[in-house]
From TrEMBL:
Protein name in the entry: Capsular biosynthesis protein
Natural source organism: Rhizobium lusitanum
CDD domains: beta_Kdo_transferase_KpsC_1
One GO-annotated biological process of the protein: polysaccharide biosynthetic process
Amino acid sequence: MAVVAGEILPDTGAKPWHPPAGMSLGAAFFVRGDFPWLGHYFGSQKLASILSPDIGGIVSWGGRSPAKMAARIARFRRLRHWHLEDGFLRSMGLGKTGAIPLSIVIDDLGLPVDVSRPSRLERLIEGGAETAELGRAIREQIVLNRLSKYNHLPHQPPRIERTAKRRILLVDQVVGDVSVGRALGSKASFEKMLADGLASDAQCIIRTHPDVMAGLRKGYLTNGVSTGDVLLLDDAVSVASILDVVDEVWTVSSQFGFDALLRGIPVRCYAAPFYAGWGVTEDHFGVYTKAALAGRRTRRRTVDQIAAAAFSLYPTYRDPADWREIDVFRAIELIVAQQKAAA
């Protein structure tokens, strides 16, 4: 049981789709090299090679080529396979800077960004009719503490010119972002989003990706866009600070949209991220996306029900100090404490 503000919240229970305790697991070389802490999420075991004869299953990270190869090897060897990814409340710092995550997701069906197949997250949202109380408590703590997936940027107002118009945030993403294609988005999705924004008579602001501004990656929107038509926002400020000054958020598949929903901001989606299709977003899906979701996400869910699944029922949290399992509320406390220590 978790206790928040005097309330006793329901126990989220075990996650029966996870690897059985004690099962020896294999992973690709780059996974074992880039995530040396990963074994702590599986009984502190040392992950073996995916070709090892003694493993009972294979884990893969993300959705790029090595993960696809791991899945093929698992099928060939008739071994179980689990997809791994960062949780939606990850850490204070970025993974690329070496920050160890407080949460990961472990899924035996598919990645939560992959709309072509159901994931455990989708099934949890579908069945989450009794989770609104838990989700409300999580949402209130995240909003109160101004948190997002990463929490290293300062809370300060972005430099945006004043306007009396409605202000729409268009969220750019990095070209090649797996979550775009897996959510059935494309370059055309961003072009449609931008065209709709420019035709809306609102002030359009494009949130640029830090890697794009640093010249390390290309963005779908921020390369070749006329700054006379829209404002490019590259201020190094927190997600919460940006959401404080916008009226709507339009996105293809970014988690930025979910952050906006938690704060009661209207969200329009041009692809199908995990939080779309449940009645809480304005969905501008194409015919192919509608066909892929046919018969799924048929129930209406609230933001709080989705939050309960995404932040509590689905991910696994551990404290990197001793690797003991914790819940989402303790993870929030740890991130806030880290922020205070760094201030």
